[in-house]
Amino acid sequence: MIYLFYGVESFLIKKEIASILQKEKIDAINQSVYNLENSSLKDIMEDAATISLFGEKKAIIVENSYIFTGTTNKKLPEQNIEIFLQYLQNINPNTILIFVVNKDTIDKRKKIVLEIKKVGIIKEFASVIDQRTYLVKMLEPYQIQPADLSFFLDRVGKNLSILQQEVIKLKTYKQDDLKITRQDIIDVTCKNVDVDIFSLIDHIVTKNKKKALESYTEMIQLGEEPIKIIIMLSNQFRMMYQSKQLLKKGYSEKDIASILEIHPYRIKLALQKSHGFTESVLLNYIQQLATLDYQIKSGKIDKNIGLELFILSI
Fold this sequence. Notes:
Elements: E1 2-6, H1 10-23, E2 31-35, H2 41-49, E3 58-63, H3 81-89, E4 95-101, H4 111-119, E5 121-124, H5 131-139, E6 143-144, H6 146-156, H7 160-174, E7 179-180, H8 182-188, H9 193-205, H10 209-221, H11 226-248, H12 253-260, H13 264-274, H14 279-297, H15 303-312
Helix pairs in contact: 2-3, 3-4, 5-7, 9-10, 9-11, 11-13, 11-14, 12-13, 14-15
């Protein structure tokens, strides 16, 4: 069987692959993982056509399968598509071949996509819109109050992989006590630094210097380095600027996410935050942070004082 999985929700793709491997009873010794960005399609096809030495069935997972997209990056290796098309004419029934594309689109006009559609399964894994419902299912059979569920999402963020890790920690911590409280969430889960960065940006947008300094201080207390915070802030402002520019040119949120190769949810947030800034202000902040980074690394200013001064200057 051949599968082509694509979409930005890598957690759901991994979950689907795990389900297939379990259903087909393929153990680790009969699993191979390739990355098409540094592997030859010819080698992969030869592996797929070969009988497993350790069992009846084997699985081959091919990550970053850019050949199914419209990507024209010259840095990526050229692949012999004909070898793949030949394999599709004589598929090894004992090989589970899974191609993964971590982008929200594939080029459905390509011959290789059309041929897979004839003999295999193509499935999209779009971003989960209703994280609350998904989180409730993750937590079952544990119970949580709606307000605490919101607190959990605000604290941890909406990345499904991270949410699952934190849910496992909570369940292990609570054991037989099936009620999860806000204090449990505070005691056990880790606060997502991306959430903090957006909180800091929120306060910068509203020019609330007191709250911005409080957010910054909290991040420092959680162990974040000022230099890392500067880089993260700069990256966020750059994303906001680029998203704003592309939106002005008529691109949709989905298009912008694809062009910048960033998760659609992050683009959505960036566009929401960018309403509070003009493009010139965003560029000015990026330049200020670049100058601050240089001044800190060259010893001209203390890293903590430098970032505090930037926050106070907004």
